[in-house]
Specification:
The protein has about 450 residues and is mainly α. Helices cover about 70% and strands about 0% of the residues. A hairpin with a 3-residue loop joins strand 1 and strand 2. The radius of gyration is 24 Å and the shape is globular. It starts with a helix and ends in an 8-residue tail after the last helix.
Length: about 450
């Protein structure tokens, strides 16, 4: 009887010990997973970083370059290329720490300059990729954002002013907004959803481009027929952007998993549907199926799906893409004509307008079955729409004011921002660079 009692006493104890031992092992496994670099995730984000880099000096440069007039083709390409170059330097000096350093009051980040203190063995917060890889990935976003803004101001801006503007703008405008949304700032705490850059990239760039275009003034021959130098280059550039955008959106998951796969698919779907929507509305309006319109529709769909890519399913991406093609078409062919501003290559008409729609759509269609971090209006969270609107409004107001200040500073530092009327008439390829895009003999 005593033996039975002792066994009965020991059995619960042994079970408890076993449970504690199992819990300790599980905790150790979790800690090991968190602190161990994931080769698959790292390989994917390395690839995604290369894809996003390709978007700016290749995809965007050709997309914008082909739409400009032949006498300004090289200058337009140079602005995209230089935007990336400037970002690559400024980001490692100070941009990264301002965007992703230790949060200061929800407004800005800061740890140290020149990436000091970051070791090659340090892992990002996800625990599966190196911090230095995250730095590089985010640097490509800064580069394309400032380059996107250049589309509104080509054919009349001094190249020296552009270089100075790009450097200051990344630090004073892009980095703070990136911190607010992605770096632990007040918009992220508010609950703003932006998977890959609806507010941080597209609304930011679109508004910045519009503000500088208004300050710089219209081109001297604005209103006259201006034909693109090469629709072929523009379509090629749009295709390169589409290709790179898979890294842009699916890469923003920072891992090779189901959400990344979903982001990849909805990105492709939205782009295709937006191109169809633009083509149809353009045919109804002008009775033509233009390749320039199709290329613009592709980009509008890519822009709109960007903030939603990691939160919505494929059915939502069909709607987001279709609406993006329509609203961006009217942003280019209606809004600009009505307000008579000279947004040269429709940086605001496409990126600003479609970016605003995409940010709103994220608040409507975010599906917790896709990503538990996002729950939109259609899934019982009406507040998310209002939160998205707050994020949009804050971004527009800050970008507009800060961009105006930065542009004024850049203009003063370079002795004026606008090229002479003779230079504008001759073309900036020869005046600013001493080269021609094509030497046909």
């Amino acid at each position: 009887m005593r033996k039975l009692l002792s066994l009965a006493t020991l059995l619960p104890l042994s079970t408890l010990w076993a449970a504690e031992e199992a819990a300790t092992e599980a905790a150790a496994d979790v800690a090991e997973k968190v602190l161990t670099l994931d080769v698959g995730n790292t390989a994917w984000v390395l690839t995604a970083t290369a894809l996003v880099m390709f978007m700016t000096p290749a995809g965007l440069a050709l997309f914008y370059g082909g739409m400009s007039r032949s006498k300004n083709l090289l200058n337009t390409i140079a602005m995209s290329v230089m935007g990336y170059i400037v970002a690559a330097v400024v980001w490692v000096v100070a941009g990264y720490t301002l965007a992703f350093g230790t949060d200061i009051g929800g407004v800005i980040g800061f740890d140290s300059l020149f990436l000091s203190g970051i070791k090659v063995t340090d892992l990002w917060a996800t625990g599966s990729i190196p911090v230095l890889l995250f730095v590089a990935f985010q640097m490509t976003f800064a580069g394309i954002t400032v380059a996107l803004a250049s589309g509104a101001i080509i054919e009349r801006l001094k190249f020296s002013t552009w270089i100075v503007f790009a450097a200051i703008w990344i630090l004073a405008v892009y980095a703070p907004i990136a911190h607010w949304v992605w770096g632990g700032g007040f918009l992220s705490k508010l609950g703003v959803l932006d998977f890959a850059g609806g507010t941080v990239v597209h609304i930011n760039a679109g508004v910045a481009g519009l503000v500088v275009a208004l300050m710089l003034g219209k081109r001297a021959d604005y209103g006259k027929a201006m034909f693109p130098s090469s629709v072929t280059l523009t379509v090629l550039g749009a295709s390169m952007l589409w290709f790179g955008w898979f890294g842009f959106n699916a890469g923003s998951e920072l891992g090779a998993d189901g959400i990344a796969a979903s982001a990849f698919l909805v990105t492709n779907t939205a782009a295709a549907v937006a191109a169809l929507a633009w083509m149809i509305i353009e045919y109804i309006t002008y009775k033509k199926f233009t390749l320039l319109g199709i290329a613009s529709g592709i980009v509008a769909g890519l822009v709109a799906i960007t903030p939603a890519a990691g939160f919505v399913d494929t059915s939502a991406s069909l709607i987001i893409g279709a609406v993006a093609g329509i609203v961006a078409f009217y942003g280019v062919n209606g809004l600009k004509k009505a307000l008579k501003y000279d947004d040269s290559l429709d940086a605001f008409g496409i990126h600003g307008v479609a970016g605003i729609w995409g940010a709103l759509a994220t608040g409507i269609f975010a599906n917790p079955e896709v990503n538990e971090l996002g729950k939109g209006l259609l899934y019982g969270n009406a507040d998310q729409v209002m939160i998205q609107i707050e994020g949009i409004v804050v971004t527009i107001i800050y970008t507009a004011i800060a961009t105006a200040i930065v542009f004024k500073i850049a203009s003063i530092l370079t002795g004026g921002a606008r090229v002479s009327s003779d230079a504008e008439s001759q073309g900036l390829d020869e005046v600013e660079h001493g080269e021609k895009a094509f030497n046909l003999r």
